[in-house]
Design a protein that fits this description.
The structure holds two protein chains of two kinds.
Chain A: E1 2-6, E2 9-11, E3 33-35, H1 37-53, E4 56-63, H2 67-77, E5 81-86, H3 93-107, E6 111-115, H4 126-134, E7 137-148, E8 151-158, E9 161-168, E10 171-175, H5 187-195, E11 198-202, E12 210-216, E13 225-228, H6 234-244
Parallel strand pairs in A: 1-4, 1-6, 4-5, 5-11, 6-10, 7-10
Antiparallel strand pairs in A: 2-3, 7-8, 8-9
Chain B: E1 4-8, E2 11-12, E3 15-16, H1 18-34, E4 37-43, H2 53-56, E5 59-65, H3 74-88, E6 92-96, H4 99-112, E7 115-120, E8 122-126, E9 129-136, E10 141-147, E11 152-156, E12 174-178, E13 187-193, E14 205-209, H5 219-229, E15 232-235, H6 237-241, E16 262-266, H7 272-278, E17 283-287, E18 301-303, H8 307-322
Parallel strand pairs in B: 1-4, 1-6, 4-5, 5-12, 6-11, 7-11, 14-15, 14-16, 16-17, 17-18
Antiparallel strand pairs in B: 2-3, 8-9, 9-10
Helix pairs in contact in B: 3-4, 5-8
Classes of the chains: A alpha/beta, B alpha/beta.
The structure holds flavin-adenine dinucleotide (FAD) and adenosine monophosphate (AMP).
Flavin-adenine dinucleotide (FAD) is lined by residues 210-212, 236-239, 250-255, 267-269, 271, 273-274, 277, 287-290, 293, 306-308 of chain B.
Chain lengths: 248, 323
């Protein structure tokens, strides 16, 4: 079985965001980029599935040359092949999904793992968009995954519990934290990853469906009040919550 | 032809959810400003509170019913909505960005050739165009976008838009459609509930504990306060990683994004990833013995002291207030 895993290259979650001069993107100076945290769960699940059923795992990432770093990281974890869908533009989710869908189709992958959300733009939609473009089934925000023959069963997180969802291959699964414990790349893995060839394919440009107008900082909150250093401040706190904030 | 807005509503256990009333209010607002009419759909076997819809929106409500549709089926729900919206020629489509909405919205977008902006926290009109605002980088920045597609779809972050009751309840226009052979190729077989627990994603008040609580056995302090307030219990990642609390309680960048009206952080330092998930709460209270902890930079009210001393008193005071 050929398994695809789609990964994005995102600013580290500890990044302090600054807006760039164009007012449309973030200033990348001093920002370190990592493999999207949710995609680590996707890579791990792809590798576990391969270990159980055999096959090949192919990692795909859409973006500029910098995404190669994230492809390499996945290769170092044990992924077999890498595909870089190269573009110089910032694509919207629909264009990213289209590029991924086209590639997944030509590779003939029946099972695809992605993250539930990319922690840069937090859209949380590329997985289902790609699945729909391919006409595949999909289950999002999974905390468990099971494959038996062509039947796929997964649990997804919902408000106040979990849903057990059943469907069949071909299928896209998006990973939530809790799905597994991602492995660390071994030294040997890192060495072999360096030697692996990453296939590069250009992505055609398309008019954006979602137009980027402006990126801005949220309005800063007024500094709050420290009411005291022990429980003698509690009555005032309760009074403020009741009378000023009116939230209790 | 008359222009149309479609509001997709969500039921759980046969009840339309509060977040759907928020969606209806937004639909009502745009319908009046843009002179459009509103259709609403709800899918499920039985709906108990359908009549409440008309307290928020003057619309045509269509209830699609089938015994197998009480639980969510992404394949069936998608087909029903896509067919209905195509028939109606709906131009704007609104849905709440709940766990169901997150899963369903992109599927419908593809089915209708629509653009989608997910997790919106504001929709503003500029000349008759909708400018959508959504938090990005876990709320560290805001992104303004517009859709260039014919059909436009927006999913709305729950708890952000107000559900506003109409002055006069609108006329009840409900039609029920029996669905034939729903496509159940992708379906929920069962729901496992976390018994008796209020979910942080849906709670109006959250009391959260961090490493300062010192151990799972002391979370009873947090739970007692939460009980008095009718609140959900949240947690920082440090305590989830330590196994003191389940992952579903985690608030933050890799946990849940919440915007309750009151968030009480106890023994939480306020790491950037934690703030990312809760800084859009309407009011924030911090209890932390380190007065320089970053949580105080987002808190409206704080007590820079020992939570073991403060929480029991706070619980008692709230009990007094409520009685
Ligand atoms: C990729 C990534 C994603 C992450 N995602 C998240 C996330 O989603 N959510 C999240 O929360 N974190 C997340 N983190 C972790 C985050 O960086 C912090 O490590 C974590 O939030 C710290 O938790 P804490 O505040 O409970 O613990 P600490 O930082 O250890 O803070 C404990 C606080 O308790 C106070 N305290 C101690 N004793 C008392 C007392 N008796 N009374 C009152 N106060 C007391 C201390 O002064 C201190 O401020 C993430 C990190 C990474 C790298
Ligand atoms: N540029 C990209 N290249 C490859 N996969 C991506 C890209 N962007 C998003 N994805 C995948 O889609 C998931 C959801 O992303 P998003 O919808 O952008 O939040 C991510 O976790 C990745 O698995």
């Amino acid at each position: 079985m050929k398994i695809a895993v789609c990964v994005s290259h995102v600013p580290d979650t500890a990044t302090r965001v600054k807006i760039a001069g164009d007012q449309k993107s973030i200033d990348p100076t001093g920002v370190s980029f990592v493999l999207n945290p949710y995609d680590e769960f996707a890579v791990e699940e792809a590798l576990k599935t391969k270990e159980k059923f055999g096959g090949d795992v192919i990692v795909i990432s859409v973006g500029g040359d910098q995404v190669k770093e994230t492809i390499r990281k996945s290769l170092a974890m044990g992924v077999d092949e890498g595909v870089h869908l190269k573009t110089g533009e910032v694509l919207d989710s629909f264009a990213i999904a289209q590029a991924l869908a086209d590639e997944i189709k030509s590779l003939g992958c029946e099972l695809v793992f992605m993250g539930k959300q990319s922690v840069d733009y937090d859209n949380g939609i590329v997985g289902q968009l790609t699945a729909e473009m391919l006409g595949y089934n999909s289950i999002s925000v999974c905390v468990t995954f099971q494959l038996e023959g062509t039947t796929v069963t997964a649990e997804r997180e919902i408000e106040g519990g979990k849903e057990i969802v059943e469907t069949s291959l071909p299928c896209v699964i998006t990973a939530q934290k809790g799905l597994n414990d991602p492995r660390y790349a071994s030294l040997k893995g890192i060495m072999t990853a360096k030697k692996k060839v990453i296939q590069e394919k250009p992505v055609g440009s398309k008019p954006a469906l979602v137009e980027n107008l402006q990126l801005k900082m949220p309005v800063a909150k007024n500094p709050g009040r420290i009411l005291g250093t022990d429980s003698s401040a509690v009555p005032e706190l309760v009074k403020l919550l009741h009378e000023e904030a009116k939230v209790i | 032809m008359e222009k149309k807005i479609l509001a997709i509503l969500e039921q759980r256990d046969g009840k339309i959810k509060k977040s759907s009333f928020e969606t209806l209010s937004v639909a009502q607002h745009f319908a009046s400003s843009l002179e459009m009419t509103v259709d609403a759909v709800v899918i499920g076997e039985k709906i108990e509170n359908a009549s409440d819809v008309f307290s928020y929106c003057n619309c045509n409500l269509v209830h699609f019913t089938h015994t197998d549709l009480q639980l969510y089926s992404s394949s069936a729900y998608k087909k029903i909505v896509v067919e209905y919206a195509s028939q109606q020629g709906s131009e704007f489509i609104l849905i709440s960005n709940t766990s169901l909405g997150k899963d369903l919205a992109p599927r419908i977008a593809i089915g209708l050739n629509a653009g989608l902006v997910s997790d919106c926290t504001a929709l503003n009109l500029n000349e008759k165009e909708i400018i959508a605002t959504r938090p990005v980088y876990a709320g560290k920045a805001l992104h303004e976008v517009k859709l260039n597609s014919q059909v436009k779809m927006y999913s709305l972050r729950p708890n952000v838009f107000k559900a506003v009751q109409l002055e006069n309840k609108a006329e009840e226009k409900i039609s029920t459609v029996a669905v034939e052979n729903p496509d159940l190729s992708n379906r929920v077989k069962e729901i496992k509930r976390s018994e008796g627990k209020l979910d942080v994603a849906e709670a109006d008040i959250i009391v959260s504990g961090g490493r300062g609580v010192k151990g799972p056995e002391h979370f009873v302090l947090i739970e007692k306060l939460a009980e008095q307030l009718g609140a959900a219990v949240g947690a920082s990642r440090a305590v989830v990683d330590a196994g003191w609390r389940p992952h579903e309680d985690q608030v933050g960048q890799t946990g849940k994004t919440v915007s309750p009206s009151l968030y009480i952080a106890c023994g939480i330092s306020g790491a950037i990833q934690h703030l990312a998930g809760m800084s859009s709460s309407k009011y924030i209270v911090a209890i932390n013995k380190d007065k320089d902890a970053p949580i105080f930079t987002v808190a409206d009210y704080g007590i820079a002291g020992d939570l073991f001393e403060i929480l029991p008193v706070l619980t008692e005071e709230i009990k007094k207030l409520k009685s």
